[in-house]
Amino acid sequence: MGKTSIEFQKVTFSYDSMNAPLFSDINVNIGMGWTGIVGENGSGKTTFLKLALSQLIPEQGMVMTPGDCLYCSQRTDYPPDELNDFLFSFEKEALLIREYLKIAEDWQTRWNTLSHGERKRAQIGTALWKRSFILALDEPTNHLDSEASAMLKDSLKRFQGIGLLISHDRELLNALCRKIIVMEPPSIMVLRGKFTEAMQQWKQNKATDQKEYHQTQQALKKLKRKQADFREKASQSHKKRSKKGLSLKDHDTRFKKNLARNTGKDGQDGRLLNQLHGRTSQLKKKLEGTKIKKTYQLGIWQNGECSKKDVLFTLPSGVLSLGENRRLVFPPLLMKPNDRIALTGKNGLGKSTLIRHIMNAVQGLNQQLIYLPQEISIEQSQLLMEQIRALPKEKLGHLMTIISRLGTRPPQLLESQLPSPGEIRKILLAKGISAVPHLIVMDEPTNHLDLPSIECLEEALLDYPAGLLLVSHDLPFVEKLTTTSWHITEQDDQNCVLEIQNKTIFTRGQNTNQPAIGNDSFCWLIC
Q: Which of 397-401, 457-461, 506-510 is the least confident region?
């Protein structure tokens, strides 16, 4: 039997735009089953996957990858290369996957009208059908409602091979993975067990390292104080032994100094000083070898204000086309300055279509608002980075301060040729924050964000005095932040209906995702 593991041997890798390696001297063995890859946005998770699949070549060391590989990107801009073959395959496996993930035969021809959740199901379904020995998934539950997430989890449990999973979905990581790799550039930490257990161990290790680091720091400070004291004593001893300035006729004093030199009593402080030098050097090396990650203050939106208008926007009842002879019917809509509204419903029922309709109406009202779209294309991300780098120094510094408080290091972000989708979302948030918004519209804001950033965003939105219109499949996030539900249900094959429910207690399975947003919706701020 051939090799059944991916091996990293002394791997070092960096991008051309970086001043220091992203990874340095990485050694790890990844065996059969699912291994979770976790870490902050921009910590190199996707790069690690591509190294594992030999899509990137390390500068030093080697990666040995057995068998055929398949990588599923977190982006859903384009259909998988073999989607059409999968959709029209009559193999038993293809039929079962399509039925289980509810994938329709016409999805290839109407890709642009599919929700991102539907696109993600098609992407994963095609990958499972191809039966690659190594399967690497980058945020597979992004955009999926709870029903689709459950189906995906069950499908992935059946996978037999080497699985690499990047995800911020704790439930999925716990269900699939028994090994977790934490990205801590330029190194990694490998932990055994489920995600929850591994993270507890990681925190304990960090606490131990932090304690040892501070103890070593204190010991080093104490030694340096001793060094200063002995250095002073040694200096005094040297003066006592020195004959400089003595008269040649002062025989008694010269005899005493010669005696001190011969007995070595006055030189004892000097010898102790040399010993302290050795102990100090040892502590310095120990301090350098203790890996302590610098911590930064997190949290955003310390100041804000509520709109003085009576109403943020009103819309008459209407009907929106969802394509393929389907439509969304909605009643008159009204949003007040303090409203906290969740727009919910299963994948593909028209949530993003309605958001786009609302945004078109609000643009003419001269509102201060943040709009965070569900997805940002690669082209839009590149344009955004060009705009950021061209900002005056003072504005760039202010923006980077906000981004830092969302858990991303500005120098690393600015060095990146194309930041991760999570980092792009943080940039959009930071740009909007500076405008003191009265209305916040967010379409799946937790997609692509790391867990600390999600917590920062949640706490910020909880206290911020503005209207909030939120689309999210993250049930705890929605429950904590909203009081009203605009819920879309499927009345029949042609009609979807929006119902307004005040003080809703959300139930699992209610929150989901939405159709694709076109390039016309790329609008992070309207003032």
A: 506-510
**What does the pLDDT average to over 137-166?**
88
Q: Residue 109: which of 94, 126, 87, 92 has the closest Cα? A: 87
Please measure the distance between the N-terminal and C-terminal CA atoms of the chain and give it in whole angstroms.
Answer: 64
d(CA 23, CA 417): 17
Q: What is the mean pLDDT of residues 93-112?
A: 89
The 3-class secondary structure across 170-216, one letter per residue, is: HHHHHHHEEEEEEEECCEEEEEECCHHHHHHHHHHHHHHHHHHHHHH
CA 235/CA 190 separation, integer angstroms: 51
DSSP 20: S
Question: Do residues 495 and 326 make contact, with C-beta atoms less than 8 angstroms apart?
Answer: yes
Q: Token pair of 233, please?
A: 């004593």
CA 297 to chain centroid: 16
8 Å CB contact between 125 and 79: no
pTM metric for this prediction = 0.64
Could you tell me whether strands 439-443 and 369-372 are parallel, antiparallel, or unpaired per DSSP bridges? Answer: parallel
Q: Quote the tokens at residue 307.
A: 């709109």
3-state secondary structure of 26: strand
CA atoms of 295 and 444, how far apart (whole Å): 28
Q: What is the side-by-side strand order in the sheet with 6-13? A: 23-30, 6-13, 60-64
Cβ contact 167:447 at 8 Å: no
Q: How do residues 210-264 score in pLDDT, each as one tens digit?
A: 777 777 777 767 777 776 766 666 666 555 555 555 555 565 655 555 555 554 4
